[in-house]
Design a protein that fits this description.
This is Acetate kinase. It comes from Clostridium tarantellae. There is one protein chain. The protein is globular. Helix 1 packs across helix 3 and helix 6 crosses helix 14. A hairpin with a 2-residue loop joins strand 10 and strand 11. It folds into 2 domains: about 150 residues, ATPase, nucleotide binding domain (Nucleotidyltransferase, domain 5, 2-Layer Sandwich), CATH 3.30.420; about 190 residues, Nucleotidyltransferase, domain 5 (2-Layer Sandwich). About 45% of the residues are buried. It is built from 14 helices and 14 strands. It is α/β, with parallel strands linked by helices and about 400 residues long.
């Protein structure tokens, strides 16, 4: 069975066509600048030259049509006709409290996605557009929505209810939701397999460290705490997001410094994090290079990031009453040996010890803890697309 995985942004679209027998991607691609001048589609297929299509794409329906054309292209494609696409899995950022797992697309599900759009105004509308575009082009192909928030719906009340007037939760759904759920679910399952253990017997801390970053406490296969909150702004320091700060800072920015609400939001989400501290970049590779050349603010940005990751690891070990494994994933987690070492430095008292030689690896599944480390530490490259495809397969073959 071939499953097409679609991840729509406001002006972009990522996709993979996955053969579920082998769980390998037959093709992967990216469409950029949808609705903007300079639209471009780039498709990669192993053993073939990169396929690039540059032409105007007024909306997502045009973009998806070009994706389908690229997949069946006689020279650059991987299938002979659209009939070989058996199902479509859509990444959706927010499912609110209604969805603790993935769901087949129905009219009711689409209504619920519209309702959740107010909780994720930058993401859900684009996800909805992508689903509607696929429905128009492939009306008879079953479709599934896989939510970033769903994995975290197992958190207990004390973890997700904020200490605000309870009416805000009851009437307005203001609570912690958490994000990156598909990634946390995938890597926690994968590390249990690597350890040869039943995930229901394990306490795992998953560290999804990229430009956006979050940690999750996975106890017995379920998320019981995560660092992102009502929005992806809460938690640890990120590329451009501040993470946890005193909420009164927002009031101070507006009342004392004359910021508008929009300007304050822009500052916290797009001008803060390691970019704001370093003044160099939001890309950790640029910051590590600057720090190695003696840039003190770049080094401070890294120190803050590692310090916050370490704090959350310690907190989540306490939350679960211990920890069996720590997993590093996503761009920084998979590729930065420095981040992994410095984020665990000082946690030896918990039984966490990284082997410097084993840690000299990037982008592949590897155990990097010392042989006698009580807590096992792993790198597991995330594969959200495969997780989406697996959920899609399970639902359409039920």
């Amino acid at each position: 069975m071939n499953i097409l995985v679609i991840n729509c942004g406001s002006s972009s679209l990522k996709y993979q066509l996955i053969d579920m027998k082998s769980e390998n991607a037959l093709a992967s691609g990216l469409v950029e600048r949808i609705g903007i001048e300079g639209s471009v589609l780039t498709q990669k297929v192993e053993g073939k030259d990169k396929y690039i299509v540059t032409q105007p794409m007024k909306d997502h329906e045009v973009a998806i049509k070009l994706v389908l054309n690229a997949l069946i292209d006689p020279v650059h494609g991987v299938i002979k006709s659209m009939d070989e696409i058996n199902a479509v899995g859509h990444r959706v950022v927010h499912g609110g409290e209604k969805y603790a797992e993935s769901a087949l697309v129905t009219d009711k599900v689409m209504e619920d996605l519209e309702e959740c759009a107010k909780l994720a105004p930058l993401h859900n509308p684009a996800n909805i557009i992508g689903i509607n575009a696929c429905k128009a082009l492939m009306p008879n192909v079953p479709m599934v929505v896989v939510f970033d928030t769903a994995f975290h719906q197992t958190m207990p009340e004390e973890a997700y209810v904020y200490a605000l007037p309870y009416d805000l939760y009851e009437k307005n759904h203001v609570r912690k939701y958490g994000f990156h759920g598909t990634s946390h679910k995938y890597v926690s399952q994968k590390v249990a397999e690597e350890m040869g253990r039943n995930i229901e017997d394990l306490k795992i801390i998953t560290c999804h460290l990229g430009n956006g970053a979050s940690l999750t406490a996975v106890k017995n296969g379920k998320s019981i705490e995560t660092s992102m909150g009502f929005t992806p702004l809460e938690g640890i320091v990120m590329g451009t997001r501040c993470g946890n700060v005193d909420p009164a800072i927002v009031v101070y920015l507006i009342k004392e410094l004359g910021y508008t609400v929009e300007e304050a939001n822009e500052l916290l989400n797009k001008k803060s994090g390691v970019l704001g501290v370093s003044g160099v970049s939001s890309d950790f590779r640029d910051i590590e290079q600057a720090a190695s050349q003696g840039n003190k603010r770049a080094q401070l940005a890294l120190d803050i990031f590692h310090y916050k990751v370490k704090q959350f690891i310690g907190a989540y070990a306490a939350t679960m009453g211990g920890v069996d494994a720590i997993v590093f994933t996503a761009g920084v987690g998979e590729n930065s040996a420095e981040t992994r070492i410095d984020s665990c430095k000082g946690l030896e008292f918990l039984g966490i010890e990284i082997d410097a030689v084993k840690n000299n690896v990037r982008g592949k599944v590897a155990e990097i803890s010392k042989d006698d480390s009580k807590v096992k530490v792993y790198i597991v490259p995330t594969n959200e697309e495969l997780m989406i495809a697996k959920d899609t397969l399970a639902l359409v073959t039920k």
